[in-house]
Every structure is written in structure tokens, then in C-alpha cells.
Amino acid sequence: MKTRALNSDRELSVQIAEAIREAIVAGDLLSDARLPSEAELSDQFGVSRPTVREALKRLAAQNLIRTQRGATGGAFVNRLSFEEAYEQQITTSTLLLSMNAVDFDTACEARYALERACAPMSARRRTADHLATMRAEIHRQSQPGLTDEAFCASDVAFHRALVDAAGNPVLSYQLAGAVEAMQPLMNMITFTARSREAIVALHIRIADALEAGDGKAADDALADLSAYTAQLAADIFAARAAAEAG
To answer: N or C terminus of the chain with fewer C-beta within 10 Å?
Structure first.
């Protein structure tokens, strides 16, 4: 691992963590490789061991490394899977949306553009398990006593199955944030006005299209769902503006 000069104007532990992360991404440190000891890293970067320890904590929080105790212990590079990275992607997307006050139309446009890109692949690659998950969520959404919170959770599960049906882990990872961060935001705004029957009918169209291997029909149904969601939001915002003006 190459040593780089540290900038005294920035937190040292952050810079050390960045240097180690770059070495992992570049392949200089491979999965399951043992990192130099705290003492060795301390000498290498010219910092105290507590500073190195803080850098390693940062990397562990990102699931990039793991630590083991004992004579054969130390810090090791993790073999990170897409599934293990989902939660971090969802958290990051949720924070970005909330901190940057992304408006509803922007979130809706991005989410459905990404999801519609999956439709042709999902129609070709969906498995019986994906279809069974989608059908189960449709059945759940049709239950009259289902709470708004449970309906929203089922909505997310349905769309995650649609995305995962594309059979592309890179897409699933990228869309984890779009579906699981944006969908709850969109549900929070529209749940009071939307028709569950209309949503269920659109979900049935999507599932039927995927089962038939018809990517175009699945895309058309998603386009209609996008338009329905956007119109709901527009009506809600217009009603709020009118109430505030009155």
C-alpha cells in the first residue's frame, strides 16, 4: 500500500481511511488480506496509534474491513457483497434526499426512469420466486384491514421484487436506494389521496406482463403508475396551496 502525504488542514484519521480505501478499490489490498498493524500504520503515516485506530473504525463502519482478536488477529479486508452493501446505499440515498430537499417530481422522475429500465430485463429473466413475491404482495395490498404503513411496506417489497427480477446485481444495488429511499418518501406524500384499488390494478398489470415475458407491457404499466403518482402529488400540492392562500 502506497503512503501519501497527509494534509494538516484535514482530519488525519479521515485521510488515512481514504488512503486505505483507495488501496482496496485499486486492488492493492485484496479481499481477506491482512492490513499492516496499528504500529506499522502509525509509523507509515507518521501519526499516533489512536489516530490510526480511528481510521480503522471508519473503515469498519463502511464494512470495508473487519477486525479479529488473538495471536492471528488484526484488521482484514472484507469480501463485500452487493446484499451487504444495500443498507448503506439505502441510508445514503435517504440522507441525500432529506438533506438536499429533493422535490417530489425529481424523485419520482428518477425512480421510475431507473425502474422502467429494468422492465425489459425483468420480463426476460424473472423467476417463479420473483413472480410469487409480487403476487403475494398484491394479495396483501388487497386486504381491507391493511394499515397505511403496511401497505407502503408491501409497495416497496413489490417493486424490489420487480427490480431484482432483472437478474443484475449492479442494477439491484443502484436501485435499492431509488426504491427503498424514494418510494417511502413518495408514499408519505400521496398515501392519503391515492386509490389502493388503482395501485393494485397497476401492480397486477405489471406482474401479468412480466409473467407473459412482455417487457413493453410492463414498461407501459410502469409509465401509467408514474403518471398516476405524479398527478396525485400535483393535486395534493395544489390543494395545499389553495388552503394556505384561503
So the answer is: C
